[in-house]
Amino acid sequence: MSLESQLNTDLKTAMKAHDKLSLNVIRMMKAALTNEKVKQGHDLTADEELTVVSRELKQRKESLAEFQKGGRQDLVDGVEAEIKIVEAYAPKQLSADEITQIVKDSIAKVNASGMGDFGKVMGAVMPQVKGKADGNLVNQTVKAQLNQ
């Protein structure tokens, strides 16, 4: 089932359950997908849909961090609930150990010897973890492995 049809099904379920939060988040996701579809000028591939979901998730996580810094617990609670809903549409996230293994394999593959090869390693790692791992965590893992 495509992401769009899954969102449509969940939208109907949320409407019937009078779940306003889910309804709003699903509508925002559908709008983001539609905007991307118009921008690209064609139906989205699964990879492009994944990019949109990742972008939506990242935006909410950034908002969460800002609200926490500002001490706005009322807004933090709402954004945390939204994140849980959006995460249901994102692929399962890789564990830190899985990311470390991918980074080690990529370092060996590109024959990286130090921080000068950071770009090469990131270029090899990111396509493998796209949408399945936080970019900041991948960045930190690559740096840690290259500094060893």
UniProtKB/TrEMBL annotation:
It holds the Pfam family YqeY. Coiled coil: none annotated. InterPro entries: Asn/Gln_tRNA_amidoTrase-B-like, GatB_Yqey_C_2, YqeY/Aim41, YqeY/Aim41_N. Gene3D superfamilies: 1.10.10.410, Uncharacterised protein YqeY/AIM41 PF09424, N-terminal domain. GO terms for molecular function: carbon-nitrogen ligase activity, with glutamine as amido-N-donor. This is YqeY-like protein. It comes from Levilactobacillus brevis ATCC 14869 = DSM 20054. The lineage of its organism: Bacteria, Bacillati, Bacillota, Bacilli, Lactobacillales.
